[in-house]
Amino acid sequence: MDLAVLRLFQQVAGGTTVTEAAARARLTQPALSRALRRVEHEVGTELFQRAGRTLRLTPAGHAFAQHVDTVLDRYDQGVREVRELVDPDAGTVPLAFLHTLGTWLVPRVISGFRERHPRARFELRQHGEEGLVAELLDGTADLVLTSGDPGLPAIAWRRLLVEPLHLTVPPDHRLAGHQEVRLADAADETFILLRPGYGLRDTTEALCAAAGFTPRVGFEGEEVETLRGLVTAGLGVALLPPPRTTSTAPHLRVTDVRSERDIGVAWLAARELPPLSARFREHILTEK
Q: How many domains does the chain have?
């Protein structure tokens, strides 16, 4: 069973139609179907069942697909590491990061690194904290930039900086003319939060608890800039990092609780990083 056939299996297992997968591989549909049947013959059971015009995995197919993903990921990592050993300045760094870091921290550290390693390439993904941890554990990212230590023995984490969190209020809000505010003064406000699974959601709830109240949730989103826009529109208040561009929503320093979050870099503790990713990690830690 060759890797090309396993990649075709992976595509179809992931939801790609036989027609699409065949077109990408420049094969006829019958040729792709024969290749998938050869996989089933070698495994010894049916891996797909037809549902209308699509193929869906059988229970055996789901079990096999997990191992195929692992085999292909390990193979791709091995090829990348060997290439970087031959030419350490020309590899790829798989990096995942929080959405909020994509407008300032990520461009800064990447541009600084590429000044020294101009042939370096980056494979970038954005997630909330749960997605970032999954990227590391699945081996699809070498490094992640996240808020707070994930707190898992398998993951090493180093703080890069501490980012303040301000109470962001609508332009016509009763507190809009203030520079500072007690978070407790917002206890009766409607809060706009990120969805559960995002670190800023947990941090906001913890800070509100420290201030003596549970936030009343008016809206849940997936991006900080969406929350900032909804606050500007007058739909509620939020604890957010200071804006990196012009914002019409006032951002007030919080005085009664320590309103901030840690920003850091994480990697798998037991895994030796490929040379270029190791260099990028050192760049981040020394240039912070």
A: 3
